[in-house]
Design goal:
The structure is a homooctamer of 177-residue chains. The first copy, chain A, is an alpha/beta fold and 177 residues long. Chain A is 45% helix and 14% strand. Chain A has a 5-stranded parallel beta sheet, sandwiched between helices. In chain A, strand 3, helix 4 and strand 4 form a beta-alpha-beta unit. In chain A, helix 2 runs parallel beside helix 6, helix 3 packs across helix 4 and helix 6 runs antiparallel to helix 7. Chains A, B, C, D, E, F, G, H: It catalyses: 5-carboxyamino-1-(5-phospho-D-ribosyl)imidazole + H(+) = 5-amino-1-(5-phospho-D-ribosyl)imidazole-4-carboxylate. Chains A, B, C, D, E, F, G, H: This is N5-carboxyaminoimidazole ribonucleotide mutase. Chains A, B, C, D, E, F, G, H: Pfam families: AIRC.
Chain lengths: 177, 177, 177, 177, 177, 177, 177, 177
């Protein structure tokens, strides 16, 4: 990816026809992008195509409905959804699709994302959302667990994922400095 | 209401044509009724018609969509929504109607309703949910604030509400025993 | 509102005779204004008259008593009350009027508004306060739920509110950038 | 006090003319008495006269106003106030008197008294409430700190308090069994 | 599965050679089974083979190491891990495999599973654990999200999953009773 | 106090013989002074003599023991104790004297003073600490409740306290700006 | 230890001259014994002598002072201290001795031991308390970490500890039932 | 240590053959060093040799396994482990050695170290981790409790530790300034 920013790379992928990508990254608002771009960058580093969309459960409920109802037909395999505060996006999308949905609690102002976490993770029996950590770490890990899911039927990706993990392991210094 | 239980009274009201009632009480599951019936009983005590419905954001998202989208046309003035855990019902309904929506956090098992409260009250700017206390007190108060709203254009109801409040005040004993 | 600041607009409205406005916005101290002005600005954007007052439950309990006892006679329809910490203003005003009261938990220093939230939302059965989110989002939403209540008997306002909501929906971009 | 229950003793003291007692114990509802009676029993054990009153900030705001405004003139020296949930009674009474006010957070259902504690202790600068522990321990200690305050100008009481404390110390066994 | 209990079914499946099952359900101790059996029952209802194992991160760290290191080779596709308190099992297993790992926070005694939740969900960037709700609902949903993952490459399972979801939707009554 | 800083005033009062002051303000470390000076300034504004001392429960337990055991004999009437984190100073001093002790939870780094609050307020039955709010507001209020206690037997102080309160009330503006 | 209860064994050990035991188990009140006996039973299982004492920081501060000041001279090597609520015992003892002190947060009523935990673990720099989990698990583990410390200079104990751990590992079943 | 920085001193000690040091300080990542260096500096001030290592439970699980399994043979007496978020390092190391392990919860971003604390302290019965305070204070105290343990069989160290404590006590000023 030499000579390009992550943003350039993402835009180019977004020019691909909708549904050609296995992963959809959706978020409740533009302000969530600062967090959710870490999911996108992780997927890029692993060579996994993805679309990034703003889909607000509260401001654009019909867009959300259409997106979620059509996600499987559009060819998506995995959905990553990030939202903050009373974060309803991951759970509502999960209620409208049988695709696996992973939720990222975005850090909120007053409650530092505790509200986001509880709103996402405490789903009732019947509608699962695989929830990751609050904030940037969670967004990165949403990309990684999506990769792990896709790697189950993509041996080449499985190798890239294993290599990515091995590189991270190798990068841990022996001593602090 | 002599000789009838609250339940009988409710059922009879529910036999009225949908939309003839000013208040809709919706809840995510049958198990929420133990809490939400206090909203119904409060409305009954004040002589306010109401429908009680199970509308699950997660298990019946389309029923929820249809309900919320059609609530105004159906003649409802106020919506009371109760849910527990990752409680998305009040906020999602609020995103789909401009009617005033009041949310009741139902007490959950592990988190005692803290998750319900945060999921309901921490709505982003743009979509309000007037949130009441966790549990039975909140359900009763949802009925009362609905009454206060309706009383703005119903002088007889305003008198009944004032009388109800006065009776409660008069019932407070001077000393504990 | 071209050529004026929100502040100028507010001041002009405040020059109107008390009680000519349907909404009262009250707050515990000057420092709450930074939060509560978002309620005022929302009401202005929707063309709803309002008074802004400092009414401290703790420092001016008699002013609070007089305000709340006289609110209905003064012509107010809805009261929005913001306070932080041991936030007693919304609940105390609600105990002194049958008008609908909406509470905004102002973010506090040590507890980030969790104390404000619990002090406002956990009202006992009998005295409801419709509580919004902590901070700015809650103040904006207090304005919106007040509008939703008033729109029940004001078709023109109902149209403005629907238009405001539609504009917000239309403003959501398709993709993050 | 042989041959009488604490209740009988309390009732007898309550027959004394109002204001003859140095301590007022007030609480938001009858249900708080199970907690607050420990304050009364502690005062009785120390021979300190007291009145027990139900004064609800929310259901009887005018009774509260009258009580607090008149407390000093009625001869009270110290006020103990217990309440649960959005517990406004201690702080509101403190805003209406310059007498020392001690608050007892009564254990609430969903939040186990955390809401009561925050609502009582997080008072803004200007109006103090000396807050004790949640529940029975707090009620007992409210009685004890009232005693400590009164003992500053009552040497005999100071001796009784010291003796009470010494007896408690002496009652601690050396080893568990 | 007529005429058998879920337990019988599970035992029979457990008699199958290790690694013939696509899902491993592991838990930190026997006491977690009361929660985790809901994952097993959900998988059974969907006709998904699974092994149930006790693997304690703390008491049997080497068993855990061996299990996690060998999980992929043993033929597992998805791992469901439940644990309570300082719940290290899901995260540690995730650190030792690239298979997708789903974590279930088991309700703990003093903290009701908040400690379990934080210990599982707050993983650092690099090692994802898709976390479900505390307790029984989370265990059920772990089974469902495992099914969603496996259904990506198993059309028959996708149909069974869709049917299961539709049946749940259809089972929601219209009104509470 | 024209022409002097609060600090100069305090130092001068501290030159008075120990025990000539009715109030002792103690704190666990120098870093608590930034908070606790608000107690000192409040007492000064009310003309109440006071000593300010660093007494660490953990680093100087014997100084604490000597201070608390000798506080009554030294002429103190009221003790104000501030501490942060595992804040043991107020409770330990209270265990060693029968004087009224007021505790101020100093804001801590990681937990924002929640740890300080719980460590101070949750005293067991038998040893009361009248606890104020976290941080500066609590320190100011500790000064005020000390004043309220001393005013019970000092009519001039009672007048000054009432005047201070009245001035605060008068200073509340009518409208935000 | 066949034919004896743990209690009998403990009593016998307690008949040994004070100071002949390497571990002191102290607790704030008799009611803590239900928790702390798990520390005693663990030490017994490992053949480590110990004394069990009630030492209340708040009710018997001088007993605590004497105990802590004299603990090293009395021959103790390790101190285990359990307390609940505003739990000051472990930290205060640690401030009075240089022996290693381990703290056990006893589960409290309203806060389930969160207050105990924060009061024990959040010690300021300079005075360490090695804190274990809330309740029974923490008490057991306090015994085990005391054993680990003593085993550093007692090879036979190290073997017994390793055997105890191995037996626990061996007792973990392969599958839940 | 005149003329050297703590860093130089540490590096020199780290040049010693592994296992010649009685204390190992391990941490999950380089970013934890800012906290954990306070443990190292405390040990240096007390003249206690130590190794500082980065050992990530999640990124280098095998390094962790090897370290913990070999710690006793390598000559370590005490292990200090710091980690943040879902902090599994202290507990996992404790599961793999019978040496005493002390855990330091490193302050995390969204949850300020509450997640770290719960993940470390809430260990199940059988595997103890002596947990210190969140952040820098906890790291310093981990060094001190390690010193207390080692001082049990090192009289010279016991004297240095007592002197260090005495110097800290002597450094507490009498009055704030």
């Amino acid at each position: 990816m030499s000579g390009e920013t992550a943003g350039q790379s993402r835009n180019r992928q977004n020019d691909a026809p909708a549904g050609e990508q296995p992963v959809a990254i959706i978020m409740g608002s533009q302000s969530d992008w600062e967090t959710m771009r870490h999911a996108a960058e992780t997927l890029e580093a692993l060579g996994i195509g993805h679309d990034c969309r703003i889909v607000s459960a509260h401001r654009t409920p019909e867009r959300m409905f259409d997106f979620a109802r059509g996600a499987k037909a559009a060819g998506y395999k995995v959905i990553i959804a990030g939202a903050g505060g009373a974060a309803h996006l991951p759970g509502m999308v999960a209620s409208l699709t049988t695709l696996p949905v992973f939720g990222v609690p975005v850090e909120s102002k007053a409650m530092s994302g505790i509200d986001s976490l509880y709103s996402i993770v405490q789903m009732p029996a019947g509608i699962p959302v695989g929830t990751l950590a609050i904030g940037k770490a969670g967004a990165t890990n949403a990309g990684l667990i999506a990769a792990a899911v896709l790697a189950l039927s993509d041996a080449a990706l499985a190798e890239r994922l294993a290599a990515w993990r091995a590189a991270r392991t190798a990068a841990v210094a022996e001593r602090p400095e």
